[in-house]
Design a protein that fits this description.
The protein is an alpha+beta fold. It contains four helices and eight strands; from the N terminus they run αααβββαβββββ.
Length: 167
């Protein structure tokens, strides 16, 4: 993580240092906002690194042939509303893709997102980084982004699907 690292997410920084890290990330988002595609910009600005906080990582699927990564998370209940978030990253930079970090993050059904960052990457690409508790840090460098949010029945827990990689 470049801005919102594990010490920040776990509250191991003093109040001033923690606020400074968060303010720097928010300023960075404002500075790059015009360079982000509309859907990614909307997600990043609404999330501010906290929108996926507490979301369980349900599964991730990499299709090397198509250059896509699908990530599914379940957001915790807010006001008795449960939701499933599907993120699709297309034209993934496979040379920069760290499959072992995704496998580790997907290995535990209890892994929850504690923070995430959106950033620019070289070559006109974008990067999304996620930090998980109790274990894992992932990133994906990509060209296109799409996201869907589906409301789930009250109390519904999505089954853990883990990691899958297709050729």
């Amino acid at each position: 993580m470049r801005f919102l690292d594990r010490p920040w997410a776990e509250g191991n920084r003093d109040g001033f240092d923690s606020a400074l890290h968060y303010d720097v990330y928010l300023r960075h988002l404002q500075a790059i906002a015009d360079d982000l595609p509309r859907k990614l910009r909307q997600f990043a600005i609404l999330s501010e690194g906290m929108g996926l906080r507490g979301a369980r990582l349900i599964k991730a699927r990499l299709n090397r042939g198509k250059g896509t990564l699908r990530v599914v998370l379940q957001l915790p209940s807010q006001h008795d509303i449960w939701a499933k978030v599907r993120m699709m990253f297309s034209k993934v930079n496979l040379d920069a893709f760290d499959a072992p970090s995704w496998k580790r993050a997907c290995a535990k059904a209890a892994n929850e997102c504690v923070t995430e960052e959106v950033d620019l990457a070289p070559g006109g690409l974008f990067e999304h980084r996620m930090l998980f508790e109790p274990d894992g840090e992932t990133s994906v460098v990509f060209k296109r982004f799409a996201m869907e949010i589906e409301e789930l029945p009250d109390g519904h827990l999505e089954p853990h699907g883990g990691w899958r990689e297709d050729a």
